[in-house]
Amino acid sequence: MDEIYNKIESIAAESNGFVKTSQIEAAGINRGVIKKYVDSGLLERIRKGIFVPADADIDEFALLQVQCSSLVFSYGTALYVWGLTDIIPHRFDISVPQGENISRLLRDNQKIKAHYVMKGLYDFGITETQSPQGAVIRLYDKERCICDLIKDRNQIEKQLYVQAIKDYFKGRPDIRKLLKYGKVFGIEEKIRIYTEVL
Prior knowledge:
Elements lengths: L2 H12 L4 E2 H6 L5 H8 L3 E5 L2 E4 L6 H8 L4 E2 L1 H7 L10 E6 L5 H6 L3 E6 L1 H4 L3 E5 L5 E5 L1 H10 L6 H13 L4 H11 L2 H10 L1
Parallel strand pairs: 5-6
Antiparallel strand pairs: 1-3, 2-3, 4-5, 7-8
Protein name: Abortive infection protein
Organism: Schaedlerella arabinosiphila
InterPro entries: AbiEi_N
């Protein structure tokens, strides 16, 4: 392997296995070498401007976040990652700030359900954890997920709703944080009912 390819591999290792054309250029590498490495089989093009070293395992969670840095996993997807449901998601629930243009992301990924969130509420509860394949991903914390479920109850699958609420309160619920979020989302009284019943 040559020094330039090693540099590209290093960039990929620091970016959950992916490397973008912009990262290659920022490292002072001529973008023309990308084609050379793709043609020789050392790099594989995953999406426009996104590559992985050959034979790399592709983490779909990480790939989506490489495509859209403001993306936060939410609803059923986040609940699954947190272990609050055993229902394997058939699509990725993501949240982005209202007004964010994700048309390319939606066009490239048929398995996405996008939730557009008011900018003042978007940042509430964002945290990081590992995806099922081990990549570091951004998602809403458990309390934010529970608030979203309660707030949007009529749009949530009943089995998912019941299991997530029960499992959350059966574990180690952070009631103080849940009530704080509930106040922000205007559902504090509904949350109080759950805390008393469960």
